Amino acid sequence: MLTLNSVDQANQALKGLTLANRRVLVRREIEEPKRCARCQRYDRHFARECTAPHDICANCAGAHPTRDCGVADDPNRFHCANCNEKGHAAWDRSCPMLRAKVRLGVHQKADSGFRFFVTNAPETWISEEDELARAPPPPTVWSQIRHHFTASESGPTATQSRLDAFLATPEQSIPAIPLE
Predict the structure, then answer these.
(1) DSSP 3-state assignment of 122?
(2) At 69, is the secondary structure helix, strand, or coil?
(3) For 130-160, what is each residue's pLDDT tens digit?
(4) Which of 12, 62, 145, 179 is the least crowded, having the fewest Cβ atoms under 10 Å away?
(5) Do the beta carbons of residue 119 and residue 8 sit within 8 Å?
(6) Where are the domains of the chain?
C-alpha cells in the first residue's frame, strides 16, 4: 500500500509509477466493510458492541468462539456464517456476501466510477467506463517477445533463459522452443 500526501500526488500515481525500472499499476484502495469478530456480520459494529447472544465461529459458523474451532485446519469443512454456503469461511474474500457489500459501498461513494480523485482539473473528470472505451487493447505476449525471434542471423539467437529474464513473472513463461 502506498500512502501519498495530496490528491494531486495520488492522481499522478494512478497514471502509473516506475519502481526499480518496472512499470507498476496503481489503483485506488477499495474500502472493505468491517466484520464483527463475534457474530461475523458486516453490520458496521465490532465485537465489543455486539448484541448477539453468543459467539459465531468464523470458520464453521458454529456457536463457539473461532479460537476454539475444531475444523480450522480443514478448509473442506468451512461454512460461512454470512452467506450460509459451505466451502469457505466468513473471513474469505471470495464470499459472495462480502463482494456484494464491497460493490454496494463502492457505488455509494460520491466519486465512484472515476479512476482519479476528482479535482478542479478536467482530466480527473473522466469516468472509468469512458477510459476503458478509449484504451487500446492490452499487448499480447507475442508482441512483447517477437523481437527475440526476429534477430538478425549474425546476432544472438533467442534462448529460454533470455525469455525468462524478459518475462515479468514465471506464470507468463512459455515452453522452450528449439531453434535451429
Answers:
(1) helix
(2) coil
(3) 665 666 666 667 767 777 776 555 555 555 5
(4) 179
(5) yes
(6) 7-28+115-134, 32-95, 141-172
